[in-house]
Amino acid sequence: MTAMNLLDGRIASAKILDNIAANSVLVTKQKGRAPHLSIILVGNDGASETYVGSKIKTCERVGFSSTLIRFDNTVSEKELIDKIREINSDSEIDGLIVQSPLPAHISFTNITNAIEPSKDVDGFNPINTGRMVQNIPSFIPATPKGILLLLEYYKITTTGKKCVVIGRSNIVGMPVSILLARNSDPGNCTVTICHSKSIDIPAQTKDADIIITALGKPGFLTSEMVKEGAVVIDVGISRVADASKKSGFRLSGDVDFQEVAPKCSYITPVPGGVGPMTIAGLLSNTLSAALGEFYSR
């Protein structure tokens, strides 16, 4: 039986945030101001409110300044882009994110294209995507970056390993597959991407050393799909009805944790795995933006 270890995002992110906080002090002394993250929130989606609140709180923890700009759901795409351009030209702001999801009448692509690449700390602008593909230093999407930081923290060997990524979104699945295939560390994996049109996903996962799930389908990955000693990273998080809980629901990942965990060498919990690492990845990007690491100003 494999000895199972938790990839605890709370522990790893705490250490990373301590390091960011120490560097924040140095940046503040050097520039005469703290690193500054601006967040645009459209509407009042409950989950978005929670995520944004956590980002602002973590900014405070590491000594960053933050600005929250709110718009109603009725805001036009032009108004939103005008505000983005205003922030792009503000030298006192280092990083900008627009919290998703956005209302249906606003194009996510148009919004990400409008963000100045040097302030695109969510890593969604096509220029940053292109640099990532070519292994040029750039802002990497926060969740994939958080996954890399987690692998680094726990010293998980990736070179030469077979990695299966389930899900192909531009936010997680596609970028993390590119990152783990690159000639870098973590990286140098042989990567397979599985998705809704894939045939016989278990045939792929049963042979994988590393499995990353980003589907949003509770309990999708079962023990029969995982080999002994695999590393499993669960990005999915869903609300599942649970009458035993005061809230009426519980949070579940894409992985049937109770069944899969005993077969794993390492596995992330949900919650407390990738979630905290996503914020660590975002603030790591914001620190890099404040330092001007990827783009000259």
Summary, kept brief:
The chain is an alpha/beta fold and about 300 residues long. It has helices at about 10-30, 45-60, 75-90, 110-115, 125-135, 140-155, 175-180, 200-205, 255-260, 275-290, and strands spanning about 5, 35-40, 65-70, 95-100, 160-165, 190-195, 210-215, 230-235, 240, 250, 265.
Provide the succession of SSEs: EHEHEHEHHHEHEHEEEEHEH
Count of alpha and pi helical runs: 10
The helix-and-strand class reads: alpha/beta
How many strand elements? 11
Report the uncertain regions.
Answer: none
- Work out the helicity level: 25-40%
Mean pLDDT: 95
Architecture of the largest domain, CATH level 2? 3-Layer(aba) Sandwich
What can be said about the biggest beta sheet? 6 strands, parallel
In what order do the strands lie side by side in the largest sheet?
1-11-8-7-5-6
Any overview of this molecule?
This protein is an alpha/beta fold and 297 residues long. It has two domains: 32-119, Leucine Dehydrogenase, chain A, domain 1 (Rossmann fold, 3-Layer(aba) Sandwich); 142-275, Rossmann fold, CATH 3.40.50. Helix content is 39%, strand content 17%. The protein has ten helices and eleven strands. It has helices at residues 9-31, 46-62, 77-88, 108-114, 126-133, 142-153, 173-181, 201-205, 257-260, 274-291, and strands at residues 5-6, 36-42, 65-71, 95-98, 162-166, 190-194, 210-213, 230-234, 238-241, 249-252, 264-267. The strands form three sheets. A six-stranded parallel sheet has the order 1-11-8-7-5-6. Helix 2 (46-62) links the parallel strand 2 (36-42) and strand 3 (65-71). The longest helix is centred in the N-terminal third of the chain and has 23 residues, at 9-31. The chain starts with a strand and ends in a 6-residue tail after the last helix. 43% of the residues are buried. The model has no long low-confidence stretch (mean pLDDT 95).
